Amino acid sequence: MAIDKSVVCVVPTGDRCGEGAVWSADERALYWTDINRFLIHRLRPADNSVHTWMFDEPVVALALTSQPGTMLVALGSRIILWRPAGDERRDHGFTLPGSPAVRLNDGRPDPAGLFWVGSMRNNVGPNGEDLPAGGTDGVLYRIARNGEATVWRRDLGIANTLCWSPDRRTFYFADTLANEIRAYDYDPDSSEIANERPFFSGFERGSPDGSAIDSRGYVWNCRYGGQCIVRIAPDGQIDRIVEMPVRNITTCTFGGPDLKTLYITTASDPGDRLGGSLFSLAVDVPGLPEHRVLLG
């Protein structure tokens, strides 16, 4: 398996588990997290500068909001609102039931501005140490503006991959432990999902972690333990496999002024010198702009 020569190591941050990549067009910057070290990083490609903030529990997902300069941050146990300028933090209103036995995981805003986030059995200890994962403790939540949560799926292994098709009619969602990405009908008026069906399952290289979707509706799925990213056509067929130089690929997002740079986070692994680095890949088909959480 030859590594794709167009993959570039942008920042060798050595993240234990890089995640939550989000491109801020307003700042022309990329934000991402390190779950196990309780960190948020920001890269400004114009000068290749990186700034890092520390938190007091795992940081698992990030989202832009309708308030300029304010981000939604999903921590392991709750959601907060955060202003990087001044490092101001305040409660959002949602606290995860059952924490710390379970924790939040991947999350993104939908086209209507509501935040969707999944959970899993907590595999991160109080000092960032690894704990056993497994089980079916995960739940898929839709979070309203006032912090109230609606449960859409239960009995999940590890909730991952949340993205919406360009026409805003299909929602994609993965259960990592089941090795399956599922598709749902999505109603952009009600923010409801229905008609669950398999979309991409049983791929033998690693497990489905985070994903991004491009403007043609192709899903770019990161394969944890599989050393690759798979570009999946809207009909569920493999279009392309991007060979990566590290084993654990965690999530990705499109960035840059033309949304033609795929930024890729990774997790460390013994023997991987660049494991936990941030990578980039130039692509021909642009991604979609990030959805924003609407704040009341």
Question: What can you see in these coordinates?
Answer:
The structure is a single chain. The chain has no helices and 25 strands. The strands form 6 sheets. A 5-stranded mixed beta sheet has the order 9-8-7-6-25, with no helix packed on it. The model has no long low-confidence stretch (mean pLDDT 96). It is an all-beta fold and 296 residues long.
Instruction: Return Rg in Å.
Output: 17 Å
Mean pLDDT metric = 96
Low-pLDDT windows of residues: none
Strand count, sense and barrel status of the largest sheet are: 5 strands, mixed
Q: Give the CA-based shape.
A: globular
Q: Tell me the number of helical segments per DSSP (H or I, 4 or more residues long).
A: 0
Distance separating the two termini:
49 Å
Q: Order of strands across the widest beta sheet?
A: 9-8-7-6-25
Taken as a percent bin, the fraction of beta residues is over 45%
Helix content: under 10%
Structural class category: mainly beta
Number of strands: 25
Return the string of H and E elements. EEEEEEEEEEEEEEEEEEEEEEEEE
List keywords for this structure.
single chain, 296 residues, mainly beta, five-stranded mixed sheet, four-stranded antiparallel sheet, 25 strands, globular
Helix-strand blueprint:
Layout: E1 7-11, E2 18-24, E3 29-34, E4 39-44, E5 49-54, E6 59-65, E7 71-75, E8 78-83, E9 88-95, E10 102-109, E11 115-121, E12 138-143, E13 149-156, E14 159-164, E15 170-175, E16 180-187, E17 192-201, E18 207-213, E19 219-224, E20 228-232, E21 238-243, E22 248-255, E23 261-267, E24 278-282, E25 292-293
Parallel strand pairs: 6-25
Antiparallel strand pairs: 1-24, 2-3, 3-4, 4-5, 6-7, 7-8, 8-9, 10-11, 11-12, 12-13, 14-15, 15-16, 16-17, 18-19, 19-20, 20-21, 22-23, 23-24
